Amino acid sequence: MISLDEAQSLIYQQLGSLPVERIGILEAYERVLAEGISAPLDLPPFHRSPLDGYALKGEDTRDAAPDKPCRLKLVEKIPAGYAPRREIVPGTAARIFTGAPIPSGANTVVRQEDVREEGDQVLIFQPVEPYSNFSRSGEDVLLGEPVLHQGQLLTPACIGMLAALGIVEVPVFQRPQVGIISTGDELVAPPQPLLPGKIYNSNVYTFAGLVTRSGGLPRIYPTVVDRVALQQEALLQALRENHLVITTGGVSVGEFDVVKESIEAIGGTLLFWRIAMKPGTPAMAAQVGDKLVIGLSGNPAAATITYYLLVHPAIESLAGRKEMGLTRVQARSEDVFTKTSGQRRFLRAKAYHRDGQLWVKLTGKQNPGVLKSMIYSNALIDLPPRHSLARGEMVDVLLLPF
Fold it and tell me: Residues of 137-162 as b/e, b for ≥16 C-beta within 10 angstroms?
């Protein structure tokens, strides 16, 4: 066996990046940026008002008082979207609205609720400091400033920033195509009737969703029985048609666990087989030409957990992400777990906040074949070898991204 860290490192070493394509920003949500973006203009591109009020010179209000207000002549009205026509000189002001350009000569904006209009004049009842309520040109982003970096996931905020900068097309990495192969004589595709000894194939449906959420394009292949020749054929087809192939089942030590043998039969080089962790010990990875095959357990929870730990970051890496993997935090345990193991163990759990503290609680049975406890999990408790879990103990937690 090797450690999880070693297994992840071996996978990363085999992964390159995919070709680049240019797409419109409305198609670019959750795609990965292939080149850094610098601002082609200041944002905002002009000094603007952050509220509805009156643009004026702050110095004019120096002697303003409730019983002796400052009186300024209104020279124009400036709605958002229109350029000022008049310069503000001493003794004058302009009615201005949120987002409108501040006219030349003005250095502050007074809130409309703090003043009173009388005919063509505005009355200010207290001094206002220059540059109060004054949004400067470039206060958000300066011309030439780097705003997005290569390998960044394009979130809605990123897309909004691109639009604000007038950018409507971006270079992104292609989405990885991921082949999914389930193996096992016992598997039946729903809704076919279950014969004695058969079970429904749930993993392929779980993985299709997981791959999509990881940023990949899943391609599902028919279930393959435990025969080397048939698995060879399925693997070769999937490798031709995808950037990455994942398999479930057939990676343990039983007589009918022949995925490893099938990969070696088509010229694959085994990177590792068996990881010192529970669940998911029999996970494996192999290099076939310039493609990678990751084989996971057939047990639903074990397969899902090892997906998060091995496949999810691999897809992120293929997609060009610079920051990969799960976020690690510390939380206080609500539960007791006394079953220790000589291997590193990952427990299905739910993280939540209570009284300003992050807590984590187990979501049910931890057997590798139990899927129900994954439904309510948003985290994995990372227990070191031979370590139990005490109530109130601070533990390492990996937050699941979805």
Answer: bbeebeeeeebbeebbbbeeebbebb
Give tens-digit pLDDT for 367-379. 998 999 999 999 9
Summarised one tens digit per residue, pLDDT across range 31-57 is 999 999 999 999 999 999 999 999 999
Decide if 61 contacts 126 (C-beta within 8 A).
Answer: yes
Q: Give me the domains of the chain, ranges plus CATH numbers.
A: 4-18+174-318 (3.40.980.10), 24-43+140-173 (3.90.105.10), 53-124 (2.170.190.11), 327-399 (2.40.340.10)
Q: What is the pLDDT of residues 266-321, one digit of tens each?
A: 999 999 999 999 999 999 999 999 999 999 999 999 999 999 999 999 999 999 99
Identity of residue 362: L
Q: pTM of this prediction?
A: 0.87
* Residue 364 near residue 370 (C-beta atoms within 8 A): yes
CA distance 139 to 192: 62
